[in-house]
Amino acid sequence: MARRLPSAEETFHILSSRRTRPMPGPPPAAGRALVRTLKALEARFGHGADALQARWREIVGPELARRTEPTRLVKPRTGGAATLELRVEGPSAAIIQHRASDILERVNLFLGAGAVARLRIVQGPLRGPAQRSRPGPGAAQRRFKAPLDAAAEQALANRLKGFADGPLKTALTRLGREVLRSGRTEL
């Protein structure tokens, strides 16, 4: 049996008399929901290796920060002081071992007294931003050379007047500039 649709007046009456369910709101932000839990965990377990890594240069100084980076802070299950794992470039490990007591003092000053009891040194390449910004041993450092003075540039141009414009003249011009920059007064 076909059902008759309500008229416009009947539709208005039905919708005005019945209450509709409100749209559900968006879920709460995850960061806001986790704040209390994260604060409790930080109070219980401390800052961790991420806080050390962020301020490592300030903690140990620029010389040691270039050679080391903190990777983990391992707390024993029985409680007590943690072990700090440091990644060190190979030849620097002996220097770091020798300065372990200084590093422990500075780290405990940052994390709190007695937070770290031992250092564990792991040899390997550094992964932090200090390593990426430093050029490798084979990388050439680009130096900008001072331009020639106007008189030397004019003298070089006069000498090369007889050559046709092209790659040969460009190469000879570059060579002439380098020779004049090296300190020779004549070509």
SSE order and pairing:
Elements: H1 8-17, H2 30-45, H3 49-54, H4 56-60, H5 62-67, E1 68-74, E2 82-88, H6 93-98, H7 100-111, E3 116-123, H8 129-133, H9 150-159, H10 167-181
Parallel strand pairs: 2-3
Antiparallel strand pairs: 1-2
Helix pairs in contact: 9-10
How does this model look, in words?
It contains ten helices and three strands. By secondary structure, it is mainly alpha-helical. A three-stranded mixed beta sheet has the order 1-2-3. Helix 9 (150-159) crosses helix 10. The longest helix has 16 residues, at 30-45.
Task: Summarize this structure briefly.
Helices cover 49% and strands 12% of the residues. It has 10 helices and 3 strands; from the N terminus they run H-H-H-H-H-E-E-H-H-E-H-H-H.
Q: In CATH terms, what is the architecture of the largest domain?
A: 2-Layer Sandwich
Mean pLDDT, to the nearest integer, reads 82
What's the structural domain tally?
A: 2
How many strands?
3
Amino-to-carboxy terminus distance: 109 Å
Looking across the biggest beta sheet, what order are the strands in? 1-2-3
Q: Treating each run of at least 4 consecutive H or I residues as one helix, how many helices?
A: 10
* Relative strand content: 5-15%
User: Mind describing the biggest β-sheet?
Assistant: 3 strands, mixed
Based on CA inertia axes, which overall geometry fits? Answer: flat
CATH class descriptor name of the largest domain: Alpha Beta
Low-confidence stretches: none
The name CATH uses for the topology of the largest domain is: GMP Synthetase, Chain A, domain 3
- The radius of gyration over CA amounts to 36 Å
Structural class: mainly alpha
* Helix share bin: 40-55%
Compressed to H and E, one letter per element, the order equals HHHHHEEHHEHHH
